[in-house]
Structure to design on (408 residues):
């Protein structure tokens, strides 16, 4: 293998990631094993299964798991049934060994969570936020939230994921011109927070974090129904929010619930309206981190003005309906825009989240579903469901990605 492939490993006939037996790739191989154990859950996997899934030698797997055990990341999970010889020892991830933080900056509220390696929330905090007060005030609010959730005697923190309204530059960690809040443009949010917190920080759009959380919850729910243990393991970390084309893309399609690549859109209805796109097994951000500006598609020519400067945007129409108390009407508007997206992308699921949806979940699921059914060009239309996790949880899960060999 050449040096250019050192971050991805090889892939088997099913497109799954594999390890490589080179000392320089110790970090990659350890992350790969952890990723597989995360997907296997508390039941765990044997060393032989890990070797088969990764393509690593049994000796390499034994050395890797010994190091991970010494770091407290892996523990024994009992023994598997005997197939004639000594029953093999099963290994599992130790979720409580490390934690990460996720922070959601909405336009009027902040929510923060601390999660373990299984992305289970172990602590949370929240309070009001005035996004219009500018980035410096928001930074102080994040620092306070992290301080409240921090535990100096608890597990080490891997980092902090921050989800904020877009547009923004995920790769550079810089905010864009958020609709209605021009003072945020070009603010280096990630760098400033890393300097204040002394921790790695990942910045992404709130809808991308929502997509990572929702798709991760959906995929994890399918793992127990997958075929073999190796197939279950192959789904490990699929909710980690990698860019399309990263290793997670191939993994997500390996043996999960029918074997196809799982795709969905997450639609967020709150103080704004946006979409997170889960395509090819990971969050799709686009060439400039600008994908998912769902709320600013025009669906009514010469309609009411939108704060983006256009007229007839789905966000303006939807929020106008919400303001007058017409939630069924708001759901139909979201449904019309969702139908455009479904016709364009042909996704498996439409997952709904955000505070407005949470206020009337049945109304939005039924309303969006009815429009999609009416406009469907194919009888195999996507499932409409509620997102299984929130934006702050998605931000935290993105902060876990480095441990599992994913891109954040």
């Amino acid at each position: 293998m050449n040096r250019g492939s050192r971050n991805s490993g090889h892939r088997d006939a099913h497109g799954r990631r594999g390890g490589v037996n080179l000392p320089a790739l110790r970090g990659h191989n350890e992350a790969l094993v952890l990723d597989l154990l995360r997907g296997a859950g508390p039941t765990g996997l044997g060393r032989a299964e890990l070797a088969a899934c990764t393509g690593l030698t049994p000796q390499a797997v034994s050395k890797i798991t010994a190091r991970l055990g010494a770091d407290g990341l892996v523990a024994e999970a009992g023994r598997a049934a005997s197939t004639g010889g000594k029953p093999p020892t099963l290994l599992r991830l130790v979720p409580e060994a490390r934690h990460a933080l996720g922070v959601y900056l909405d336009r009027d509220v902040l929510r923060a969570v601390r999660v373990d390696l299984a992305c289970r929330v172990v602590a949370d905090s929240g309070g009001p936020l005035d996004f219009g007060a500018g980035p410096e005030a928001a930074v102080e609010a994040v620092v306070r939230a992290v301080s409240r959730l921090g535990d100096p005697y608890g597990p080490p923190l891997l980092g902090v994921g921050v989800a904020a309204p877009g547009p923004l530059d995920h790769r550079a960690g810089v905010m864009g011109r958020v609709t209605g809040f021009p003072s945020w443009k070009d603010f280096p949010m990630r760098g400033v927070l890393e300097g204040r917190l002394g921790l790695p920080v990942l910045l992404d759009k709130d809808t991308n974090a929502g997509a990572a959380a929702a798709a991760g919850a959906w995929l994890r729910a399918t793992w127990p129904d997958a075929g073999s243990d190796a197939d279950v393991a192959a789904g490990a970390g699929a909710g980690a929010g990698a860019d399309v084309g990263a290793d997670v893309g191939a993994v997500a399609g390996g043996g999960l619930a029918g074997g196809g690549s799982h795709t969905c859109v997450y639609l967020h209805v709150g103080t704004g309206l946006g979409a997170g796109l889960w395509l090819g097994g990971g969050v799709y951000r686009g060439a400039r981190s600008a994908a998912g500006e769902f709320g600013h598609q025009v669906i009514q020519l010469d309609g009411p003005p939108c704060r983006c400067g256009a007229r007839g945007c789905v966000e303006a129409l939807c929020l106008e309906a919400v303001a007058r108390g017409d939630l069924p009407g708001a759901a139909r508007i979201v449904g019309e825009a969702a139908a455009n997206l479904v016709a364009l992308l042909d996704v498996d699921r439409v997952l709904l989240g955000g505070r407005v949806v949470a206020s009337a979940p049945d109304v939005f699921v039924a309303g969006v579903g009815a429009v999609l059914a009416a406009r469907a060009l194919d009888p195999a239309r996507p499932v409409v469901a509620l997102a299984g996790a929130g934006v702050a949880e998605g931000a935290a899960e993105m902060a876990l990605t480095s441990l599992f060999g994913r891109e954040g």
Notes: The two ends are 24 Å apart (CA to CA). Residues 130 and 137 are 8 Å apart (CA to CA). Confidence is low (pLDDT under 50) at residues 1-16, 20-24, 224-260.
